[in-house]
Amino acid sequence: MINVATIRADFPILRRLENGKPLVYLDSAATTQKPRQVIEAEARFYEEQNANVRRGLYSLAYEATELYEAARTKVAGFLRASPKEIVFTRGTTEALNLAAWALGETRLSPGDRILVTEMEHHANLLPWQELARRKNAELWAIPITKEGSLDLSIFRKLLTRRTRVVALVHISNVLGTINPVPAIAEEAHKVGAVVVVDAAQSVPHMSVDLRELGADVLAFSGHKMLGPTGIGVLWARSDLLWDWPPFLTGGEMIREVWLDRATWADPPARFEAGTPPIAQAIGLATAVEYLDAVGMTAVQTHGQELTALALEGLLARPYVEVYGPRDPEQRGALVAFNVHGIHPHDVATLLDQEGICIRAGHHCAQPLHRRLGIPASCRASFYVYNTKEEVEFFLFALNRVWEGMR
Ligand SMILES: Cc1ncc(COP(=O)(O)O)c(C=O)c1O
Prior knowledge:
With 406 residues, the protein is an alpha/beta fold. The chain is 41% helix and 17% strand.
């Protein structure tokens, strides 16, 4: 059980008034709010420990390097992975671009096949589109069913011996669907494909066991799990990382450089060219500590309880259409919906007048919205600091939106 009142006291922004009303922040799937522990860890670094990492020969630089590497170890512990398999990136988007590029360099020939799904965020679609174009490879999307799950019978038909990569989202940022990654990975591995998982909406909300998941590559963002912006994680099996050439080149990722050539550092440094996001990594490690203290099982249960309440309320309103699975246990902590006859942007703007922040638009998933036959949707998403009362107020305010626009 989560003590939401204690948690809320750690988030200064939640004291803010919006249009004279208490802020009800229901957009954590876009980015979460930050507890003061994370804000203070970043500030402390700049006030007391700031130096560049890996290059200084003085105590301050050693200390900064130690803090940066300790952050890597902390994140690795969260995933029960080795720190050598943790590459810090700017976020999920950069991590997926890196993986797509490197897999293209090492695994893909013309005519090979890449599988994605119809429910991908653009961050896990466009890098594969570009790769397929560059390498003359085939790109296929696993379709979704009416209920918003992946159609596994079609997946099996699309999976051929030429399939080199299966790239899929763990939890959809629109449908909320938790995809059966272990089952998909098992079949993908039988044909020798690499499984790349976009975990931007799962790692923040549930305990992710890499071995159970069967992923070979996994990406997520710090800012969606109480951490700072500008930091994300690429985890990959170490044999893949050792095989991959660098994505970006420059300082700090080399072994030796001549005027006409260079050799590369071992992973993960090979993939961290230039000055890394040092303060952000330290902030992320503090966010991980915070989530560990709450407990990921409790985080997930709380998310499911709020989602169940929201789903029940939305499904009971005849003027609302809900997307994705009906069972809250089969989804992440978010619900996408539309109010009949009212544009999602208007719904969001009217809720804002009540102090409620929701997301409206295509949520960087245009092909999915096209598949659903809608240009846009509203999305409410929840995290550790949200209360049942907030969800109830959101449902009540939605009635006002509907009545006011009729
Ligand atoms: C499922 C999913 N993948 C990828 C991303 C991209 O994350 P970022 O913008 O932090 O790189 C998001 C963010 O909204 C997401 O929800």
